[in-house]
Design a protein that fits this description.
The chain is α+β, with helices and mostly antiparallel strands. Helices cover 16% and strands 12% of the residues. It contains five helices and ten strands; from the N terminus they run ααβββββαααβββββ. The two termini are 27 Å apart.
């Protein structure tokens, strides 16, 4: 993906171009062809986005509103210069959609199923577009970080994701079956006995590395969600800061630290699903707070500038993996859907958990 930024006057130029006479139009086509030829000679290619429901075109949309979502500067790629001034796009190179364009589906009541291996409830997330990343104008009063930019449109195929974080009881099934090893810690922040204690069977399992989380999801018949899948499940198809919307976080919405008082809401985990008012548009629970959640992607600080439009998978390799959603011991700014934190995949942390996803087979 190439980050496309253009000033508002370029859209006026586009509108005007269609209103001039045919002979001027043909001159424009020739100019565009020359520019296209020169850019091809640089060995670069460009895809322009479309609102077509057909995802096979693998088109990318990073557009004018993306250029206004933060102060971070990103060098434009070689094929812009020297023929096209930075920020000015000739007709034919302008994106055909913006993040404000209508999206193809809206969250509502969705199909659920029960996974046979561990009894997890999975929610179907329908195929379609959503907005991934951060919008500085709607970000809960927090700044967008560079690795959250630009705000861009992504198309995801149908997939299922767990309604709840994987629990101690569910993880124990894998251990008993010989597919998983015990969690690194069996205690929690305030409880000497946590994993293996029946009182906390329905609390999120913690202190597992990315590899151990990945092993469990494979054993259960799924996989870890991609970062894009996680974000769509948390946000839906309309941009919002948190799973519940743009409303400021409270302890009733998410098990976290109180951003005003600076003290924990609980100081430890809660039973999964204990904050239903904080559910996502798809009814997914605890996507903000309780425990951080491992996702499949390798971390890249500039990945959003290069991400694919269709089913992005993250970089193919890297040093760190990503956790999303914040936890009981982090404040409100880290609970934002756009926020990601990167860690060594071998990390064992008392506030790291996960949920699984699975693809819909054709």
């Amino acid at each position: 993906m190439h980050y496309q930024a253009y000033i508002p006057t370029s859209q006026k130029l586009n509108n005007h171009f269609h209103s001039v006479r045919i002979n001027n139009f043909l001159v424009g086509v020739v100019i565009i062809g020359l520019i296209s030829g020169c850019t091809n000679s640089l060995g670069q290619s460009q895809s322009v986005s479309s609102d077509s429901a057909d995802p096979s075109a693998t088109l990318v949309s990073n557009d004018s509103s993306s250029s206004n979502v933060g102060a971070v500067e990103k060098p434009l790629t070689l094929w812009i210069s020297p023929f096209v001034p930075a920020g000015i796009w000739p007709v034919g190179f302008l994106p055909k959609t913006t993040p404000d364009s209508p999206l193809s589906e809206e969250p509502g009541t969705y199909q659920e199923r029960v996974r046979e291996s561990d009894g997890a409830i999975e929610v179907l997330i329908p195929a379609g577009k959503f907005l991934m990343g951060c919008d500085q104008t709607r970000n809960g009063g927090f700044n967008c970080f560079q690795d959250e930019l630009p705000l861009h449109k992504v198309y995801l195929s149908d997939y299922y994701i767990d309604k709840y974080e994987v629990t101690n009881r569910q993880y124990a099934l894998c251990v008993e079956d010989g597919g998983c090893s015990d969690p690194y810690y069996k205690s929690s922040s305030t409880r000497d006995s946590y994993y293996g204690n029946p009182d906390y069977d329905d609390y999120p399992v913690m202190s597992l590395s990315w590899y151990e989380a990945d092993t469990y999801c494979t054993w259960a018949g799924g996989r870890l969600p991609t970062e894009a899948e996680w974000e769509k499940a948390a946000r839906g198809t309309t941009y919002q800061t948190y799973p519940w919307g743009d409303e400021e976080t409270t302890c009733k919405l998410a098990n976290s630290q109180d951003g005003n008082l600076g003290s924990p809401c609980i100081g430890d985990t809660l039973k999964v699903g204990s904050r239903p008012d904080g559910a996502s548009p798809y009814g997914i629970m605890d996507m903000a707070g309780n425990v951080w959640e491992w996702v499949n992607d390798w971390y890249g600080r500039d990945y959003y500038y290069h991400s694919a439009y269709l089913n992005p998978q993250g970089y193919g390799t890297g040093l760190n993996k990503i956790v999303k959603g914040g936890s009981w011991d982090y404040s409100w700014g880290r609970l934002r859907i756009a926020y990601n934190s990167d860690h060594d995949p071998n990390t064992h942390n008392e506030s790291f958990g996960f949920r699984c996803a699975s693809s819909v087979m054709p």
